[in-house]
Amino acid sequence: MRNMQLLGASALALLALSGTARAQQWDGQATLEDPVWRGGKVGIGKYPIAKLDVLGDLAMNDFPLKLRGSMDASHYLKFSQARFGLVDVDFWSYSNYIVMVQGENMPRFTFTGAGSLGIGTTDPTQRLTLANGNLLLPSGSGSTDGNLYFGGTPEFGQNGMRIFGGLVDGITQAGFIDVKTTVQNDGLRFRVNTTNGTTERMRITAQGRIGIANTDPKEILQIGDRWTFQDNAAYKAMSYNVYTDLVDKRIMQDEAASIGMTRDGDVFLRTAQLLGTGKPITWINGVYVKNSGKVGINTTAPSSQLDVYAAAGTGTAGNFWSSTRGVNGIADGASTNGMKVGVWGSATGTGLGQVYGVYGTTVGSNAQADYAAVYANGNLKYTGTLSSVSDARLKENVEPLTGMLDKVAQLAPKSYTFKTDIAGMNLPTGTQVGFIAQEVEKVFPELVTTNFVPGADEENSTEYKGINYIGLVPVMAEAIREQRDVVTANHEEVTDLKKDVSDVKTNVSNLTTQVGALATEDANIKKQIETLSSENSTLKNDVADLKAENNDLKQQMATALAELKNLRHSVDSLLNVGRISDAPGTPISNSVASLGQNTPNPFSDETTISYALPTTTKAGELVIADVNGKELQRIPLADRGNAKVTISVKGMRAGTYVYSLVADGNIVGSEKMVVVK
Asked: pTM for this one?
């Protein structure tokens, strides 16, 4: 078959072989071994249903097969063998016409005269345009290439971009992208803004660094101008304003921060303060979590589950803020040594200043609220000393305590046990001794407070009253001091009374003798009365007289006792005068000079003494001495007649004193006075 031409849609197909016509009209009976035509259609080896219908292959022996689109051969499709031309198939057009391959009335391939190829589209805008779907290359197994080359050659080390998925230099590749430019940091650039194609979004440099919104990444990954991902031998980290150049440095003048993991599996979060661009970083370890689970704040070596470290002079190591509980320490579970501590406070120091293991304080201004720096829900134990604030520089409105003895007498100590059904208070067990707060409140309301159990809500909170037992110490001290003054005064009075009793006993003994005599006489009288019944009436009168006489004797005895007491008082005065003055003299008459009892007595501040001196008295003095007769003070008396003098306790201790009125060297009288403080 030398050549074949189709002239028009209904042209007769002419087949020539050595000049002999082989086509025949279809008669319905002829065999299909030779070409036939029917109704403008040609069939070779089969009944034609198209303009040219061939059963089997259509082979070309000597010359190319051209399918022309026009008589002037300006458009044709040529099939040839390679030895007759540069290509096997040639699509030829003298103008910018489109060559299209369709399937199922859908465009599959479109070739434009401008050299663009479209797959699935009739209007390719680029050298290769895909309407949809994927571009699939061979897997690269065996000897099959599956690579794409952009602006470069298949050889390694050449400028351009290569996507390898097949063979490279005869070696099967796992698949990678190779980019090389003459500028080292250019690398692979990504732009995604179609309205501004010059805006670079991401870059992969020749060193393997990735920059997102950054054209010069300083670490394995950098986002923007400050965020970096570091991949060092010692640690991996996501950092802010940090890059590593032998040491960690700042990208820009700003604070720095880093969060990452060490090669040992420790996790850290650290920060650095503001400093200049490129300056080395001195890290502050904010949070450091060891691979053992221990957490350190400002330390990389926590020794417990949570260590919070503050450098010397930097203040508080940590604050816990909450509307209810700032710190809640719980020790629960089995322990090997039997000790459980919910909150452990310890402080050590060698310098000056204060060292406190635990410090608690409260801040508030509501007078009705319950404030306590420390609240112990259970027993409170300590091995040191308990110091309560008592500095005079911190106090005002200071007044002495008085009358505490009577108030203390109103307190009623009790023994008791606490109830066991009070929830959440850990009340002590066993027999206790103390006071009842409600009873103490009636006497000392300032020593009783109303408290609440912490942690309970306002509606269900437990209210209870407590006593400031330390506040009872000064109360008891004042009561003891007042009791001591009373005991001292009573002791002196008892001593005097003992002497008086001794004198009275002597008088009673004498009176007993007299009474015995009177009893004998009375018996004789009774005998006479019995004997002299006739003189009964007279004897009765005599008996009455005797009774009256007996009463007179008793009155005389009382008078004698009174005189004895006055005599004792005079003796005491004489004894005191012996200590006050050695000058001889006799007391002057009380009708002329007199001394009264001081008022008030006892006294704690001042007392007033009344006296009388004749106008003829040349020298009058008031002499004060202790109970042992030691003279303590002489007060000159300028006034004559009835007068008064006021003395103060200044310089005098609590106790009993004797004061005497001396006129012209003679003692007029003496009295006792009691000083209490």
From this structure: 0.44
